Amino acid sequence: MVLQRLIEGLRDKDIGPLLGLTTRSVTRIVLEICDKLNARTRTQAACILLSEQKAGMDWETENPPATRLV
Question: What is the pTM of this model?
Fold first, then answer.
């Protein structure tokens, strides 16, 4: 899943083959994640996601499917 790979610090071109996606698709998904989290950078998005995980929030299950990102 792109979120977890983003947190792990992988680049778009490394995430794509792992998930069967093109680099362009991964880039688009990462941009959508940043937009949804109001993050300026992918690093800031990863920090937000990590802080939510540590707070016990499960971002994937707490967002309805219509707003959930891959």
Answer: 0.74
